[in-house]
Every structure is written in C-alpha cells, then in structure tokens.
Amino acid sequence: MNISIAVITYNSSDTIIETLNSILNQDYGVQNIELIISDDASKDNTVRIIEEWLDVNEESFFKVDFIKNLVNMGVTENCNTVWKSSNSEWIKTIAGDDILETYCINANIKYINTHPECKVLFSKMRWFGNIDKVTPSPHDINFFKKDSAEQNNLLKVFSFNIAPTSFINRNALIDVGYADKRYKTIEDLPLWLKFTDSGYKLYFLNSITVNYRTSESISMSEYRYANIDLINNLIAINKNHVISFINHPIIQLLRIEQLLSLYLTVLISFIFKNKKTKTAILLGRVMWIFRPIHFIRKVAVEIYNSIYLYWKKS
Q: Which residues contact 283 (CB under 8 A, 6 or more apart)?
C-alpha cells in the first residue's frame, strides 16, 4: 500500500533536513511513500535546502511533489493544498520541524489493518526542545474510548494537542471537505470537530510515533508574547461551536473561563506590544495560577459524563 507523507513548511531551514531524513529512514520502505511537500512562501532558505535534498533522494520515493507557494496562505490552506495533492489512501502529515520515529508508518499501517473501521488515527508523541514530555496523558487517552458524538462535545471543552501524530484516510478528508478555511492559523481542532460531527470516531494507537519540536515555531516564539492570529482563531472556534446538549453551569463556566483567558492574553500582548518581557511573562503566569480550570476541569468531566449518559439514554 502506498502512503502519502505530507510535509508542511514555513521558514524551516534549520530543521527541515532532520524531518526529511526521518521520512527517508522509514522502515516501511520509501519506495511505498508518496512524498508531498508544500512550502508556504518561506522567507529563508527552506525551498533551496529542500531542492538540494531532493536532488539526492527524490528517486528513492514512489512519487515526489514539491509545491512552492508564492504567497503565504496560512497553515490551514497549506495543509489543504498538500492533502488535495495526495493520491494515496492514507496521509501522514508532519510539520517541517518535527521528526518521525523510524517505525511511524509501519505502526500506523498495522493498526488500521486490524481496525478497518478506523479512518482517523492518533498516537503518542515525544516533545523535545524547550519541553520534555510524552503526550497524550493517561487522562487524555480516555477521550479516545468515547464514541464520535461524545468526542465531538468533549473537543468543544477539553481539546488537547494531538495533530502531529495524525494518520488520516484521504476519502474521509474528502468527505468532510478538508480543514475549515475560516481559521487561517489553526487547522487541527476544527477538522477534528468536522470528523466527529460527521460520525468519524477518533482512534488511538498506544505508541510514540512522532517527536514534536517545541522551540521557535509558528505558535511559539522566543521574542513574541503571543500569536494573536492563533488566539483570535481560538476565540472564533469557541464562539462558533456550541455543545448540543449541555447547559450545566459548571460547563458554561468553563467555556467562559477559557474565553476570558484568551481575551486576557490578547490584552497583555497589547499592553506590552506583543513583546515577551519579564513583566508580561509574570502577568501571564499569575493569570494561569489563578485560573480555576484545573479544578473546574476535573469536576466538569464528571458532570459531562453523567449528563451525557443521561441524555444518551433519553
């Protein structure tokens, strides 16, 4: 079975070789891999570096397609571009600063072969760089035990970062209309909402398949306090997606708290001209300490589960 590995890049000159080499080293066999790269109008040497790497390695792959966008479209449209170029049944997406484990594709293929009902698969990832940990946590893994309707509602309140490990059936992507173009800087959460709203359950493979870099990136910056475009997209997602059956005050409080936190982040960014000063960082940490989300989340999960079970039976 041929598999598409979709690489999205933007100013990835310092990291893209590691990413590409991790694809080249897949024990699944690169002769079975369709490599698709879409660069979002990088301002550094990313395109040249990729071209030089392809000069040496292109013939190893089943097929290669390098898309060089002349205008920056944002991560969502860049993802859609690379996905629409795929000719394979399954697509493994990776950013130009992350690294695949050598067994990544093989592990995903083995899972879908034994779970034919699975169309959207996630797994564990190891964070490296500024943060060292493995996610999702045991608590978050429980999310994958829910059906698609439960997952859809939980995503509106308890979402977490799982995108780097995604392994997606191309026909399922076509069925839901790809990523939501309304959100230029965040492609993943709205897409998971689309999948689960359309009845696609999100599955989980209990294996580390991706190494996720947490240093300088689109969403994380050494000098910028916050990615305002990303936060505005998160605010819009929070407002545009409502929970179909929950009207419990604790759940509503959690949603209000999340919105308030996002607005406060925007305010701190405005006050300090979006510079990551010591005072801005201190205010952000104080805001985090006094957020009730840690307590509310535990209570809300229990309330959610009770309400959902009652609603489902009625």
A: 268
Residues 3-213: name the CATH superfamily: Spore Coat Polysaccharide Biosynthesis Protein SpsA; Chain A (3.90.550.10)
Q: How far apart are CA 159 and CA 163, in angstroms?
A: 11
C-alpha closest to that of 138 among 120, 160, 117 = 160
DSSP E strand boundaries for the chain: 3-9, 33-40, 63-69, 90-95, 99-100, 120-128, 133-135, 167-169, 202-213
CA 112-116-118 angle, 5° bins: 70
d(CA 287, CA 147): 34
- Give 10-residue mean pLDDT values along the chain (314 residues): 96 97 97 98 97 98 97 95 97 98 98 98 94 90 94 82 96 97 89 96 98 68 69 74 57 69 78 78 72 54 54 55
What pTM did the predictor assign?
Answer: 0.81
